[in-house]
């Protein structure tokens, strides 16, 4: 008996450890990671947790990091493989350029790659006119998309980032937009390339794109995303890196030492945080009653893992809030959703999971007096025969 109690205590400790975690307070500008940038922010891409911030809600100019939104709208347009005719005004847009020629045709996919790698303002202009009909209309679409993502302090006036009154964002908003974009595989693939040659088609000239983002060469785990500079905005940079399952996006606006700012943020993130599985797929959580079923009780399990970014070596117990009915009606399909649960740290919900049926349960019709009497008569007639 004592031996069994000891085993139960050990199991209790192991279970508590398996479902415990802690997420630390994000480092501020007063911490040991003070960036040279006027404004900075670092988010975990998977959860959008803030891991570092400095003046992150202050509205700033964003220069060519604007093109992150232009690119994601191009990718999501459903027209990525279409040929685009360069409008007459595009070659005359000032700043960095692909040196497009009015009237020539180029695939939207190549325009997007050239815009993100070479930072071609002429490409951004061409994309905006092709998808929006005008710069003004496309800028409104960009702003609407930003607000949909949650970047409510962002307003776009153009697709390329040249200085314009009211064209502004915050480091936090730009991190949200970039985190959203990095979840798109096509976008992620484009911004991780160091160079690219344009697609070939009849009568087309070859275009070569070279990525301006030095982070791809300076930092081993860098995977994107976009540089930017204007005299008004100063040096702007959005970076991203991934290591051991943890992906982060970093933003600096007005940063004299931006490359090193981002490398320090990357190093801090990977030294301090880790992705931890809080709830493994297949975890049993609850049993509910079944009405009119062949079986009267049904066990509910999770079908997916729940990961969260936590500080290394720190653990706090998690709690669970159920959204499950007291009873369910048969028939029930195996792995059908029966309810859900929220996983909380303190009063903060860090994730939600569906709870699904362990097995299928057929409906059993209730036994009535009429059915019993009918069965009795049938059996009596058989006996008389």
Description of the structure:
A six-stranded mixed β-sheet has the order 14-16-17-12-11-15, with no helix packed on it. A five-stranded antiparallel β-sheet has the order 2-1-9-8-7. The protein contains ten helices and 17 strands. By secondary structure, the chain is α+β, with helices and mostly antiparallel strands. It folds into two domains: 39-274, 3-Layer(aba) Sandwich (Beta-lactamase), CATH 3.40.710.10; 280-357, Sandwich (Peptidoglycan synthesis regulatory factor (PBP3), Domain 2). 38% of the residues are buried. Helix 2 (67-76) crosses helix 4 (121-132) and helix 4 packs across helix 5 (135-149). The longest helix is centred in the first third of the chain and has 17 residues, at 2-18.
Share of helix, binned:
25-40%
End-to-end separation in angstroms reads: 63 Å
Number of domain modules: 2
The CATH topology label of the largest domain is Beta-lactamase
Main beta-sheet strand count, sense and barrel state: 6 strands, mixed
